[in-house]
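WARN retry 2 of 3 for item q-0093 after timeout on previous attempt; input resubmitted unchanged.
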Amino acid sequence: MVPISATAATGPVDGATGRNPGRPRSVQVDEAIIEAVLDLLAEGSTVEALSIEAVAARAGVGKATIYRRWSGKEALLVDAVSSIKGPLPSPRGESVREDLILLLGPGPRKPDQRMTRIMSCLVPEVHTSPERYRLYQGLVEPRREAIREVLRRGVRTGELRADTDIEAALVVLAGPILIQKMLRWHPDLDDAALPERVVDTVLAGLACR
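OK item q-0093 returned
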């Protein structure tokens, strides 16, 4: 997640996605490029060392093929990390508890075993520049806002106390999940059951009595 350090992208760029418009894209080529990025990061490549040249070589494509699809390394990294995280689940809106467990959990698909190694590589990069920090915030904000909305709804419906500190609750809910995922801080915890345990523990302090 760094500013582009290679040749500038050719042609205009879609400002919302960082991708270049043009002829229809091959899904197989897109997937090969994304997988190349993820494999290189999982193998220990730093963000600084990761290059368009290395990605192209691993994916079996030319650099121009990548630049036709992404404006540079920055945009490519965002898409690669987003792909491994998977799509944001849609809360059903029936229960604050169930929706929080859904949003804090791993999602319906089988977790990618590369995730922990990749995030361990990327997280130290977040604080090395303001731009990388902004990129990180752009990745996490959609899920953060989804959790906020569940908490706000809980206040409106009376499931949560009217004086609930939404931002502090976000940290309390997400913090244990992140530290366990990144560091295996407590080796005896069942990661699959942790979201439910965290939500139940937090709600015991936030719920109306």
